[in-house]
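User: Structure please.
Assistant: Input sequence and predicted structure:
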Amino acid sequence: MLIECMGWDIGGAHLKAVAMTGGVVVSVAQKPCPLWLGLSYFHTAIRAILDEWQPPDTCFHVVTMTGELADVFNNRVEGVFGLISALSEHVPTENVMVFAGFDGFLPAGQVQAKDVPSIASANWLATGLYAASKLDQGLLVDIGSTTADFLVLRHGRVMLKGYTDFERLRHGELAYCGVVRTSLMALTKTAPFEGEWIGLMAEHFATTADVYRLTGELPEHADQAPTADGGEKSVIASARRIARLLGLDMDHAQQATWKRLAAYFREKQLECLMAASMSHLSRGLLNGQSPIIGAGVGRFLVQELAQRLGHPYLDFDDLYPKPLPTSEFHLADCAPALAVACLARQSHA
């Protein structure tokens, strides 16, 4: 079965892709891609996917990105053109279309500097536009390894208040609050321990991945980022890293204590996510029965948000009507990659 179209989401930490044949998704993948360490990681990640799937030279490629923000680039213009150029080393440039938000899809070879503001970090909009085409209204919450997006969907539209990262941070539509890479010192300055509130060390000792390894909620296949200390991704090692935030060694307390502390960090992250969700619901654009749509590898938290908010939960996977591909990754894990592929097909139908 020949792959006819591939959707790509080039992030700063991961490369995500979906493959379609006859309008049906046949494969989905995510590979680690720490761009801040250099473009070589992108080349390794894309080669791994292309070598596995073997798309023909006639395959149509659609791309969205957030990786232009990586430290390897001096600015967004350099980043957008750098990623397009890197992609073109692996697939024919004439077969590549770039998602430019409300400006639609642009041939990669025709992208100009004036297009960068529409292209840069617009993957969330692709996800939102796809979801808005599938249901009348809802609050889409996409929680990935690094960030969380909040999008109000109503009558086929994404009711955005901001477009750039700066604007979206200002309006609470973007939060750097993911389930893998977020440093725990960003969630709170203190934590309860042995009957006292302990000030935490402002060091990158532990991440949210450590929390969700201890709670057992982080899918193993989604645990692709390095740990804060470069060590193991075990429950024991995670507890050791969390203990360091308190200036302690892990053997100071039993595992049950560290799991209880992990539950506190989980609650602090939910507090951040709840505040953003309630702010958007307070706009009065959605009715009380509108669903909370969960996307991203952290959507297990969206399920809890929906329960606490009293709204039905809808998984992003359920917006795709056809049979789902067999893969350790779900379409919801790689929502922007699916979205750009589907939106491009719709626009060229």
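The two ends are 21 Å apart (CA to CA).
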